[in-house]
């Protein structure tokens, strides 16, 4: 039942987020990132917090709908953007225009807003982007929070799954392999008719060739072990107890310096960022590593 609810939430919230993204909104802004239009929003005042969403999501579904933007904007200047290939941002179809280019989109957005350093929060693919950002541009990162994922390693046997996902997207068959992959161990896999329903919504709202290219570009988000051991920025991982990507966190924990890990009881990959413990963990972590006074 929990798995079914997660898949329903994915379909409905993706639709809601995409609809919110295409409706006129005063807060929508755009900038050019090496020839690709990137859409972003800014809310609140204070130290900057940059939010990076996950694969096949958008800033509304990942950050606005669960209330993350609203919560953090009480004390921080919150910046969220649609990754290239997602939401209302540009969607090139070439794999070499993803990977590290997605990391550089984050840096260029900070440059565009004249922000020297920011707290960076990523979820799932966004966590891999945040970790790569920390490795490539540590001078731009005040703190790093990785949600729903940990270490993208070299020679990871899980890379074969990413290729299968890209091939499914290229065929126009949607993200079924991803939903199966994200089903916690011991829970029933989604049935064919559920996948068909979700993929119906997914195909209406997404450029599958762009997402296939983004999936293929993920190989470039690998972070070398020595970069993790050399990390000096405070870092946090928040992961669901039964999230299949928890293994990437278990691999990261003994390697990355200055890291603390929070595990949310009973949460899976699709639930974690909706759980109040997720926002609370981020708030407490940012408070411990920011200059703002505690709320009265």
Extended strand count: 8
* Average pLDDT rating: 90
Largest sheet: 8 strands, mixed
Query: What would the CATH topology be?
Result: Rossmann fold
H/E topology pattern:
HEEEHHEHEHEHHHHHEHEH
State the strand order across the main sheet: 1-2-4-3-5-6-7-8
Structural class: alpha/beta
**Rg measurement, Å:** 18 Å
In CATH terms, what is the architecture? 3-Layer(aba) Sandwich
> Beta-strand percentage?
15-25%
Provide the low-confidence segments as ranges: 1-26
Name of the level-1 CATH class = Alpha Beta
User: Helical element count?
Assistant: 12
> So what's the overall shape?
globular
The tally of domains stands at 1
Per CATH, the superfamily is Alpha/Beta hydrolase fold, catalytic domain
Straight-line N-to-C gap: 41 Å
Range of helix content: 40-55%
Descriptive tags:
296 residues, alpha/beta, Rossmann fold, 8-stranded mixed beta sheet, 8 strands, globular
Q: Helices, strands, pairings?
A:
Layout: H1 2-22, E1 29-33, E2 36-43, E3 48-52, H2 59-64, H3 68-72, E4 77-81, H4 100-112, E5 118-123, H5 125-136, E6 141-147, H6 159-170, H7 176-181, H8 192-205, H9 208-217, H10 225-229, E7 235-240, H11 246-252, E8 259-264, H12 276-288
Parallel strand pairs: 3-4, 3-5, 5-6, 6-7, 7-8
Antiparallel strand pairs: 1-2, 2-4
What does this structure look like?
- The chain is an alpha/beta fold and 296 residues long.
- It has a single domain, classed as Alpha/Beta hydrolase fold, catalytic domain (Rossmann fold, 3-Layer(aba) Sandwich).
- Helices cover 42% and strands 16% of the residues.
- The chain contains twelve helices and eight strands.
- An eight-stranded mixed β-sheet has the order 1-2-4-3-5-6-7-8, sandwiched between helices.
- Helix 11 (246-252) links the parallel strand 7 (235-240) and strand 8 (259-264).
- Helix 4 (100-112) crosses helix 5 (125-136).
- The protein is globular, with a radius of gyration of 18 Å.
- The N and C termini lie far apart (41 Å).
- Residues 1-26 have low confidence and may be disordered.
């Amino acid at each position: 039942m929990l798995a079914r609810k997660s898949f329903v939430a994915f379909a409905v919230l993706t639709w809601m987020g995409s609809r919110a993204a295409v409706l006129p909104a005063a807060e929508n802004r755009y900038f050019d990132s090496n020839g690709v239009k990137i859409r972003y929003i800014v809310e609140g005042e204070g130290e900057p917090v940059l939010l990076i969403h996950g694969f096949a999501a958008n800033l509304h579904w990942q950050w606005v709908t669960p209330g993350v933007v609203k919560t953090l904007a009480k004390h921080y200047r919150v910046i969220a953007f649609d990754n290239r290939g997602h939401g209302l941002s540009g969607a090139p179809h070439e794999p070499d225009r993803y990977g590290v280019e997605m990391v550089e989109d984050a840096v260029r957005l900070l440059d565009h807003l004249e922000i020297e350093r920011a707290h960076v929060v990523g979820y799932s693919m966004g966590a891999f982007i945040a970790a790569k950002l920390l490795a490539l541009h540590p001078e731009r990162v005040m703190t790093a929070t990785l949600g729903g994922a940990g270490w993208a390693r070299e020679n990871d046997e899980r890379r074969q799954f990413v290729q299968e996902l890209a091939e499914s997207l290229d065929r126009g068959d949607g993200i079924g392999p991803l939903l199966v992959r994200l089903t916690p161990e011991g829970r029933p896999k989604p049935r064919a008719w559920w996948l068909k329903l979700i993929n119906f919504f997914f195909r209406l709202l997404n450029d599958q060739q762009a997402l296939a290219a983004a999936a293929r570009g993920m190989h470039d988000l690998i972070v070398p072990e020595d970069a993790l051991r050399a990390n000096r920025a405070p870092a946090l991982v928040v992961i669901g107890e039964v999230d299949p990507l928890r293994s990437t966190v278990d691999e990261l924990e003994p390697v990355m310096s200055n890291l603390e890990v929070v595990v949310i009881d009973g949460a899976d990959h699709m639930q974690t960022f909706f759980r109040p413990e997720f926002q609370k963990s981020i708030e407490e972590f940012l408070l411990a590593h920011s200059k703002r006074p505690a709320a009265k």
